[in-house]
Amino acid sequence: KGGSPRAQFAELETKIRSAVARRQSEQSLKKSEQEYRSLIENLEDVVFVASDEGIITYMSPRISRYGYDPKEVTGKDFAHFVCAEDIPEVAKYFSRIKPGVLPAPLEFRFLDRPGSPHRVRLFCRPRTEQGKPAGLQGTFSEIPLEKKDALDLKRQESFHRAFFDTADEGMAVI
Description:
Elements: H1 5-42, E1 46-50, E2 56-59, H2 70-73, H3 87-95, E3 106-111, E4 117-129, E5 132-142, H4 145-165
Antiparallel strand pairs: 1-2, 1-5, 3-4, 4-5
């Protein structure tokens, strides 16, 4: 190119500074992505992202504890992995997740690959892209055995209480 050597040098200096800044930015982004991936992959909880329709778009590697590979669950309906009796409750929970509304955690039974249920606690938040609702994201983790026993006992107590409270005739427990 033409021009004075000083102008050529200034232009070259600007290009070099721009290339160095871009390279530093790319390295910083790559480091951030690696840290984020490490964080997600080393959590005890399963992390997932789902569309508004409940289709799984991301599942963390921790799903392997239930016998699944993240790639095989991606693209499937979340309900496919929920115990049939719990699907209405999970669907209702998902429908309540909206920006500004953060429902309490939900406990339900998640099915592993062989079909055995595992009682888990689900936490979800709405997901947005460019300020618009874009599904939900959340985590779930298995409930410790002691907590499961207490929950089962509470459910049994509720069932028996409802049974006795609605009985037309008197009953005695011997």
